[in-house]
Specification:
Layout lengths: L2 E7 L3 H10 L4 E2 L8 E2 L4 E7 L3 H7 L4 E5 H6 L5 E6 L1 E2 L2 E2 L2 E8 L14 E4 L2 H10 L5 E4 L14 E6 L3 H5 L2 E10 L1 E5 L1 H4 L2 H21 L1 E9 H8 L9 E4 L5 E9 L3 H10 L3 E6 L7
Parallel strand pairs: 1-4, 1-5, 10-11, 10-12
Antiparallel strand pairs: 2-3, 5-14, 6-14, 7-8, 9-12, 9-13, 15-17, 15-18, 16-17
């Protein structure tokens, strides 16, 4: 059994390779190869444009793939969505497809697009969006450099953004959000019905989600006297409950837990005041709840 797995070429490639490595897979490729090497003999990897992955997975050419929820919707792909993986090329989190116009444009709402020209790569999704708002406009496929098209080649665009910096650099103003999208692991429906392939895909999903969760978590380990234990525990958030172990001195305990990295800066001084000693913060590779 070989799982034929598509990974996205282009802007999402580096983030995906890093995630795969953190999930435990040794993966590498040369700049000219579309067939990366992976240390799992049951997986065959191919690099494919994210826009095309849903089509090939739906057709059964590939068993599974990492792509965008946006491209799955655009292709109207009949696939099994296994899991959402909340990362993008610049970090964790969803991305947005936004309706944008030139700063000086009089267009302030989607209703004002009636009879206008809209350029985008996400043609089907944008047509559905306009239909929901009962607006008739001309939607044209953009082959790239979409931000440069207004005002001469298009009245408005629908473009992907993570931070909005590229839109601002091109003097464009966001009017509305058309779609939020995350990376998704998808599977061919026939492959999903085969127990061995399904288990392989489920295992991959588990490891990828564990690696992603570890990106925002850290481990904390500390010692505390019995008299301060209850106070210290009241300060500690945890996935379940902290691990507590008695040391050789019966008056002292070792406490270990996993917390959100963003709270550690405020948490450690509070733990110290509560009597914690020997506080250690350490990174995590995977967190599987």
């Amino acid at each position: 059994m070989i799982l034929k797995l598509a990974l996205p070429a282009g802007s999402l490639k580096e983030a995906t390779f890093n995630l795969m490595r953190k999930a435990g897979y040794a993966i590498s490729s040369s700049s000219r190869s579309y067939y990366p090497r992976i240390d799992d003999p049951e997986i065959q990897v191919m690099l494919v444009r994210a826009q095309e992955i849903p089509r090939y997975v739906a057709a059964g050419v590939l068993d599974a793939g990492l792509t965008g929820a946006d491209w799955t919707a655009e292709n109207r792909a009949q696939v099994q969505v296994v899991s959402e993986l909340n990362y993008a090329k610049q970090g964790l989190g969803a991305v947005r497809w936004v309706l944008a116009v030139p700063e000086k444009s009089p267009i302030r709402s989607v209703k004002q697009l009636r009879g206008k020209r809209v350029a985008t790569e996400l043609v089907s999704v944008v047509k559905d969006y306009l239909r929901r708002h009962r607006v008739k406009a001309q939607v044209e496929f953009s082959w790239g450099a979409t931000e440069a098209k207004p005002p001469y080649l298009a009245d408005a665009i629908v473009e992907l953004t993570e931070t909005g910096s590229s839109l601002r650099a091109n003097n464009l103003r966001i009017v509305d959000t058309v779609l939020h999208s995350t990376t998704v692991l998808i599977a061919n429906r026939r492959a999903w019905q085969r127990p061995a392939l399904r288990q392989k895909i489920v295992d991959l999903s588990l490891l990828l989600k564990g690696a992603l969760l570890a990106e925002v978590k850290v481990g904390l380990k500390m010692n505390v006297q019995h008299k301060n234990l209850r106070r210290l525990l009241s300060l500690l958030p945890a996935l379940k409950k902290p691990t507590i172990a008695q040391l050789t001195d019966p008056e002292w305990f070792d406490v270990e837990t996993v917390v959100d990295e963003k709270v550690v800066r405020e948490l450690i001084p509070k733990l110290k005041l509560a009597g914690a000693q020997g506080i250690i913060e350490y990174p995590l590779n995977k967190v599987v709840p």
